[in-house]
UniProtKB/TrEMBL annotation:
Gene3D superfamilies: NADP-dependent oxidoreductase domain. Signal peptide: none annotated. SUPFAM superfamilies: NAD(P)-linked oxidoreductase. This is Aldo/keto reductase. Residues 16-317 form the NADP-dependent oxidoreductase domain. The lineage of its organism: Bacteria, Pseudomonadati, Verrucomicrobiota, Opitutia, Puniceicoccales. CDD domains: AKR_AKR11C1.
Length: 329
């Protein structure tokens, strides 16, 4: 597994992490035994970066991670990035010092640790991030030793740029970045590198669309956001299928499939494409089975994609994909 320095203190993390939204059962039911098997497969494959949030499953994702790492004695070896800001007691306008610290304390308990490796603002309102107060609160929590670093998970490139400019101590930005969402390359990456801000690439497989395993008959459980948020009914539409309408996404996948290099799957090509950008510190695909976690981890050791393939993918994005994306990005 390749590792890379992350953020301003250059702590080493794996270039492939594990997105842990699905551990909260927001992608359909997931048994505890299967969740633990996914975590074990990931860390056994060299993954040292886990991304979660306090709101995933109402704390279930954090709790599963905390119990797993504690029992395995891995709390000093695995970097856990969590998020806050979407629970109802904060969102959308109660980002006070007391409320934020309360959320941090709950995450500390669930993750069974004395200090959180990274706390990210979780797609909170832009107008809150534009003010000084929330950044001052996070800096104070670093001073108290409750958190080690802070970052932000954002929806748009404009928010990403604003966060870099607003918060000099910012460690990281988590953004939607995949074959369907290429705007950060031009709008964010150079500025992030100049300011030693690590990029965490989320929704890397467009909620599974870029796995190539869906068709027009595919259905999703009622509790799966790919069902209830397909058109942005619950939260930003970009978080589900990267904002591309499902049926259109299937057509785009058909165009991408013939481009896959021999010996790779479509999912591996999509993930390798992301890692070919050195501004990206870590990509965080989710996994609903241990074998998926292993396949995802393996892409860190695959060779970079050919230059010609990058150019073909860039042209396909411009001509066929860019105008289909819904929601602000």
């Amino acid at each position: 597994m390749q590792t890379t320095p992350f953020g301003k203190d250059n702590t080493q993390i794996s270039r492939v992490g594990l997105g842990c939204w699905q551990l909260g059962a927001d992608w359909g039911d997931l048994e505890l035994s299967e969740a633990n098997a996914i975590l074990k497969a990931s860390v056994d494959a060299g993954v040292t970066f886990l991304d979660t949030a306090d709101v995933y499953g109402g704390g279930r994702s954090e709790e599963i991670i905390g119990n797993f790492l504690s029992k395995a004695g891995l709390q000093d070896d695995v970097f856990v990035a969590t998020k806050l800001g979407r629970f109802g007691d904060l969102y959308p306008d109660n980002y006070t010092a007391a409320s934020i610290q309360g959320r941090v304390e709950e995450s500390l308990k669930r993750l069974k640790t004395d200090a959180l490796d990274l706390v990210q603002l979780h797609c909170i309102p832009t107008e809150v991030m534009e003010q000084d107060e929330v950044w001052t609160i996070l800096a104070d929590l670093v001073s108290q030793g409750k958190i080690k670093r802070f970052g932000a998970s954002v929806e748009t490139w404009r928010e990403a740029v604003m966060c870099i400019e607003k918060a000099p101590e910012l460690t990281s930005l988590q953004i939607i970045f995949n074959l369907f969402r290429q705007r950060p390359i031009r709008k964010v990456f150079d500025l992030a590198k100049q300011n030693q801000v690590g990029i965490i690439a989320r929704v890397p497989l467009a909620s599974g669309l870029l796995s190539g395993k869906f068709d027009r008959q595919t259905s999703f459980a009622e509790s799966d956001h790919r069902n209830y948020n397909r058109d942005g009914a619950a939260f930003n539409v970009g978080e589900t299928f990267a904002g591309v309408p499902f049926e259109n996404g299937l057509e785009l996948v058909e165009e991408l499939a013939p481009l896959v290099p021999e010996g790779m799957t479509l999912a591996q090509m999509a993930l390798r494409w992301i890692l070919d950008y050195d501004a990206v510190s870590v990509v965080i695909p989710g996994a609903s089975r241990p074998d998926q976690a292993l396949a995802n981890a393996s892409i860190a050791d695959l060779p970079p994609l050919p230059t010609e393939l990058h150019e073909t993918i860039r042209q396909l994005y411009k001509e066929k994909i860019r105008d289909q994306i819904r929601g602000a990005y």
